[in-house]
Amino acid sequence: MNPDLQNTIPCEEASEWTAAWRKKHPNACNAFLVPVVDLIEVLNEMGVLSDKVAAKAQGEACIKGLKIRAYGAVGSDSPEKKPEEKLLVVGTKYNRKTKVYQDIINEEIDAGDVKLNSFGEPVVSSGIYDFTEPCPPSCDPNSPLN
User: Fold this and answer.
1) Cα(first)–Cα(last) distance of the chain, in Å?
2) Contacts for 145 with CB less than 8 Å, ≥ 6 apart
3) H or E stretch at 31
4) Is residue 145 domain-resident?
5) How many structural domains is the chain composed of?
6) Which residues contact 66 (CB under 8 A, 6 or more apart)?
7) 3-state secondary structure 59-85
8) Is pTM beyond 0.85 here?
9) Nearest Cα residue to 18 out of 6, 30, 8, 9
10) What mean pLDDT comes out for the span 49-56?
11) How far apart are CA 7 and CA 4, in angstroms?
12) What is the phi/psi pair of residue 21, to 5°?
């Protein structure tokens, strides 16, 4: 849960940023659907999660088929900063009827279901997270992926 709404951005602003991405990159993909188990594995590898917690979380994520969606965006954290490429992340919920992972935004899925955390409590946030820095300049110059 994110009680202080750290790294969240309002839906209207996120919509502007993703529209700017699509305008700048009309032939690129707009977003990626990412299995939550992949994120858990990365956090475990970094030592953020203990092996026991990671194993439990991986099991839950696999059983429930949990995924997040990461959108390409172009925006700025403040009016003084030049817009830069960003990655916006939202949780999703699988709709068995439509067979689509639907974005969870403003605690809702398609203006209906309230998003609950794993303890059954409502989550109060925009549900849109921006915690990214583009590469360059935030690159690892020695990475074989760079």
Assistant:
1) 33
2) none
3) strand 31-35
4) no
5) 1
6) 35, 36, 37, 60, 92
7) HHHHHHCCEEEEEEEEECCCCCCCCEE
8) no
9) 30
10) 88
11) 9
12) -60, -50
Please give the backbone phi and psi of residue 16, each rounded to the nearest 5 degrees, phi first: -65, -45
> Quick check: 72 and 28 in contact, CB under 8 A?
yes
Angle subtended at Cα 37 by Cα 145 and Cα 16, rounded to the nearest 5 degrees = 70
User: Is residue 60 packed enough to be buried (19+ CB in 10 Å), middle (13-18) or exposed (0-12)?
Assistant: middle
Q: Classify 34 as helix, strand or coil.
A: strand
Q: Parallel, antiparallel, or unpaired: how do β-strands 108-109 and 113-114 relate?
A: antiparallel
Whether 125 is in a domain gets the answer yes
Query: Which domain range does residue 113 map to?
Result: 11-130
Most confident stretch, 18-27, 61-70, 109-118 = 18-27
- What's the pLDDT tens digit per position in 5-36? 677 888 899 999 999 999 999 999 999 999 99
Domain membership of residue 81 (yes or no) is: yes
